[in-house]
Specification:
- This protein is α+β, with helices and mostly antiparallel strands and about 700 residues long.
- A hairpin with a 2-residue loop joins strand 25 and strand 26 (about 640-645).
Length: about 700
């Protein structure tokens, strides 16, 4: 048996978490279990040799939430977990982003960090526990990880920040910030907010930083006691003589090619320069470098382009497409560009173009998903993002959505969902089809979704727009924050910081870094710069369509919500569902009935909608004193008749109330199966209804 070692971390007074190692998965390079409450997550790190010809760090981050951890069975016919859920994929992405910058340049060994939820208590989410565990497992391993990294979720309830709030607490929180970083250095943030201020988000990050310090100290203590000796890594770096030769071969032609305004022309020009470099260097280095010749030359050329781009930005304030540091590319917005669909918006920023389509449906169209916490959740607003090959002018295999598509769609969805009213009866789906990509397609999707929703008549409380800011730094401490980065500036720069918001405040955010951390103050300045840019984009969007259309699109199904007495649900449904089935079959509408008496109706047009409402009322309406009904005689007695005025509701028509003259026999007025007009003259406390034909006739004659 292995000896188990534990360290405890106090997040806030009375709330702590624990990292342990030595008991499970001891054959991995490094492993640990992170526990908070009764939620436990295993993280294990392993490595393998670099793949031949790989010119990037192939870090694999995997994470699985097994239903057994919560004492449950998976749903469906096959009682085994299948492909990872969106939640698992998003956790993988959040874990990968703070780990990747903390490995040395040129380290191309395969590294896999696997996370497995062992126990789930329904209170504390396991995702940030895994993020912390992944860092701890790498610190314990012999891999050249330059951590540790801490990770925490921050909520904000009643003016107080909460570290790793429970699932129930998060439902009441005004913000959700997932923060990862080192001491006084932020590396990754992601989350959403209910239109919060930049200052509140900054305060949340400083609050998280205090916790990160304690988490990092605990990991260092654990690694000092139980960690493996770090091995000297094999680094694949471009030899200096090759870099010098590339510099000499490029000359002034590189700058001319790298700073052409168009993405396609710039790419072709750089390919020409690269071809010349390969030709110039082949006689001198092909024999010595052998089959790795092109590998090192191409990698060195990319570094030379990066150096030229970064130097131009820092020294001359000159960007690749000729813009100023805070300039936004040309913007355009259109709505209603497609027939048939319920709403459409086309947003373009420079060469980036997103076409977003909004579709309205009923409650049955809500996105349902099963999860380990035991609740079959659903959401009435969701956004899907598609990034086809043609958007970057390439060919490739067409498959389902990958991690990138799911991540970008989730960011856009969370950002826009904050302004979709909770009581809007429709289910709404937005689909962002990226038509062309040259940076920040997720932010274009946010703007396009706002246009499409307003075009469809969805009464959003405020338009939401988003933009990305970048960062370029050097070893001397210089830094410049760039507004609206293009794809190449994302590739050669240090940061991609996306912020979305309405006029009231921030609704969504995401930070990616290539640096091993930056001060929070830098991010605060970037938020201010981002806000200025959003105001300019907001004007373009609202100039196109100032507010949501007054009614939902005529192409959309018509929907209404009725409230009925819950005691009438049985009457509406009918025996064996007879009544509700008849309504749906005759009208073609969808009718959804909730236990609280809420009836949602989805019909193809207003005429059908009114017909369905009338049919529902015929089964659920309550008898009203003074109201006249056309009723069916159900039973005849000597003293009167029982008349059904509403489905399941009978009243007594006494013989004395049948006419304004003396009636000798009930059969002189009606018999079973007849329809007669009656007026409700009384309903006693027990619910018994008294009817009068005499009063009805008198009122009709008047």
């Amino acid at each position: 048996m292995q000896q188990e070692t534990k360290v405890s971390i106090e997040l806030t007074p009375g709330k702590s978490m624990e990292i342990s190692t030595g008991k499970l998965a001891h054959l991995a390079n490094g492993s640990c279990v992170v526990r908070m409450g009764d939620t436990c997550v295993l993280a294990a790190a392993c490595s393998g040799p670099a793949r031949k010809g790989a010119d990037f760090f192939p870090l694999q981050v995997d994470y699985r939430e097994k239903f057994s951890a919560a004492g449950r069975f998976p749903g469906g016919f096959i009682k085994r977990e299948g492909r990872p859920t969106d939640k698992e994929i998003l956790t993988m992405r959040m874990t990968d982003r703070p780990l990747r910058p903390l490995f040395p340049e040129g380290f191309f060994d395969e590294v896999q960090v696997y996370g497995l939820v062992l126990s789930y208590d329904g209170n504390y989410d396991a995702d940030t526990l895994y993020m912390l565990g992944a860092s701890a497992a790498l610190c314990l391993s012999d891999l050249p990880f330059q951590g540790p990294v801490g990770a925490v979720r921050v909520g904000y309830i009643d003016g107080q920040f909460i570290a790793n709030p429970t699932v129930e607490e998060m439902k009441k929180s005004e913000i959700e910030l997932v923060y990862a970083g080192k001491e006084d250095q932020v590396i990754m943030i992601e989350g959403e907010a209910k239109e919060c201020s930049e200052q509140l988000l900054a305060d949340a990050m400083y609050f998280a930083n205090d916790i990160i310090k304690r988490q990092c100290a605990a990991q260092r203590e654990l690694a000092a006691n139980c960690g493996r000796t770090k091995k000297t890594p094999e680094l694949h770096l471009v030899p200096q003589d090759v870099m010098d030769a590339i510099e000499e071969s490029c000359g002034a032609t590189l700058e001319g090619a790298a700073f052409l305004p168009g993405k396609e022309e710039r790419s072709k020009a750089l390919d020409v320069v690269l071809a010349k470099v390969l030709e110039d260097l082949r006689p001198k280095f092909e024999e010595t470098l052998g089959e790795d010749f092109e590998f090192y030359v191409k990698m060195g050329f990319d570094k030379r382009v990066q150096k030229a781009v970064r130097s131009a930005i820092l020294d001359k304030h000159m960007r690749m497409d000729g813009r100023g540091i805070t300039d936004i590319r040309p913007l355009s917005a259109e709505v209603g560009i497609l027939p048939v669909v319920h709403g459409s918006g086309l947003f373009q920023r420079g060469e980036t173009q997103a076409l977003v389509i909004a579709t309205l449906g009923g409650p049955q169209d809500a996105q349902e998903y099963d999860n380990v916490c035991g609740s079959n959740d659903s959401k009435k607003f969701y956004l899907h993002y598609n990034f086809p090959n043609y958007s970057v002018g390439e060919v490739g295999k067409v498959t389902g959505p990958g991690r990138r598509e799911i991540g970008h769609g989730n960011l856009a969805e969370r950002s826009v969902s904050q302004v979709v009213p909770a009581d809007f009866p429709y289910t709404v789906r937005c689909v962002s089809e990226i038509m062309a990509s040259n940076g920040s397609t997720s932010m274009a999707s946010v703007c396009g979704a706002t246009l499409a929703l307003m075009d469809a008549g969805v009464p959003i409380t405020s338009p939401v727009v988003g933009i990305s800011c970048g960062l370029v730094t050097d070893d001397s401490g210089r830094e410049l924050i760039l507004t609206d980065i293009i794809g190449a500036e994302d590739h050669f720069g240090d940061m991609d910081f996306k912020v979305c918001g309405s006029r009231k405040g921030i609704t969504g955010f995401q930070l990616d870094l290539k640096l091993p951390g930056i001060p929070i103050d830098t991010l605060v300045r970037a938020m201010a710069q981002n806000k200025e840019a959003r105001e300019k984009i907001m004007k373009v969007v609202t100039d196109c369509i100032p507010a949501p259309r007054s009614e939902v699109s005529p192409n959309a199904p018509q929907m209404d919500v009725m409230k009925i007495n819950p005691d009438k649900i049985g009457a509406l449904i009918g025996t064996g569902g007879k009544n509700i089935k008849e309504i749906c079959e005759v009208t073609g509408a969808q009718v959804d009935i909730q236990d609280d008496g809420t009836v949602s109706i989805l019909a193809k047009n207003k005429t059908v909608l009114e017909d369905v409402k009338r049919r529902v009322l015929s089964y659920t309406a309550e008898a009203e004193v003074g109201k006249i009904y056309r009723g069916l005689v159900k039973t005849v007695r000597d003293f009167g008749a029982f008349v059904e005025i509403l489905p399941g509701q009978d009243g007594l028509l006494h013989i004395s109330e049948m006419a304004n003259y003396r009636v000798n026999q009930v059969s002189d007025i009606c018999k079973e199966g007849d329809y007669i007009t009656v007026k409700v003259i009384d309903i006693d406390r027990s619910g018994k209804i008294r009817l009068s034909r005499k009063a009805a006739l008198d009122e009709i004659e008047k």
